Amino acid sequence: MSSSEEAKAWQVGIWDRKSQNYLQETDKRFAPVVEQVLDRSDLETGQSVLDLGTGTGSVAIEAARIVGEGGDVTGLDISADMLAVAEGRLMDEINLVFRLGSAEEIPAVDGSFHVVLASLSMMYVIDRAAAAREIARVLRPGGRFVAAVWAGPDDCDIVKFQTAAGAFAPKPPVEGVGPGSLADVLPFQAQLLDAGIDTEVETEELGFDYDTFELAWEVLSAVTTANLEPERVEEAKRAVQAAMWPNGEGPLHFRNVTQFIVGNKS
Ligand SMILES: C[S@@+](CC[C@H](N)C(=O)[O-])C[C@H]1O[C@@H](n2cnc3c(N)ncnc32)[C@H](O)[C@@H]1O
């Protein structure tokens, strides 16, 4: 396996495992981000929309409702297990398809979409320059791009939590990928501009709650620490709890500054 195949397999494995409780524990917490991505997308009836890194399909399903039967939505993801969960949510949407594929190699012809959306997915894309070129290629002239990405650990508790837990995990096969990897959005904005999409960044403080540390640990760290020895897991838990839960237990509000990268193809 080449190093890029190994990196992609690692990323797919993370999301396949996360799919198990994403619908139950993560969808509701990410709902304000999804809503704000859709608010900024200016969707209109009859448009063609691509939801990149669709996960369990929250953005795609709502977008399909907005564009109506005269429009169409494609939800694309590298994780077959996430897509299986998304498929399971479908009711009678005839204008929505979920497809396996990556942002770096979008399976669509040039100029296919009026709008490309990417809610909390671009941070995990391994080759973001390729993704920027692909987003520009599949957008029509004047087409809109909206992505949501987390801020850095000082402003975004979910990134703080995962950075603290990730310090105990084995070294990942690729650098620069993970929840806080687009805290500095400028390099990605430059890649988008090179590809023909001029963007601005709008910032919002959003958030969600966990009733207990144990629940947050189960949801956010199970994948990161899946291959650690049990004593190492305990050490990681204690370190994250100390960093995040100053009182040890009880409910905690996560304050997550979220950055929206918004622009149009020239
Ligand atoms: C945090 S989830 C976000 C899911 C959904 N958009 C949401 O807002 O709830 C990130 C998603 O990005 C997908 N992903 C990661 N790298 C990708 C890539 N290179 N191309 C397409 N999807 C990717 C993952 O499989 C995962 O489903």
Note down, in words, how this protein is organized.
The protein is an alpha/beta fold and 266 residues long. The chain has one domain: Vaccinia Virus protein VP39 (Rossmann fold), CATH 3.40.50.150. The protein is built from 8 helices and 7 strands; from the N terminus they run αβαβαββαβααβααβ. It has helices at 3-41, 58-67, 80-89, 128-138, 157-166, 186-195, 213-221, 230-244, and strands at residues 48-52, 72-77, 96-100, 113-119, 139-150, 197-210, 252-265. It has a 7-stranded mixed beta sheet, with helices on both faces. The protein is globular, with a radius of gyration of 18 Å. The model has no long low-confidence stretch (mean pLDDT 95). The structure holds S-adenosylmethionine. Residues 11, 15, 30, 34, 52-55, 58-59, 76-79, 82, 102-104, 119-121, 124-125 line the site of S-adenosylmethionine.
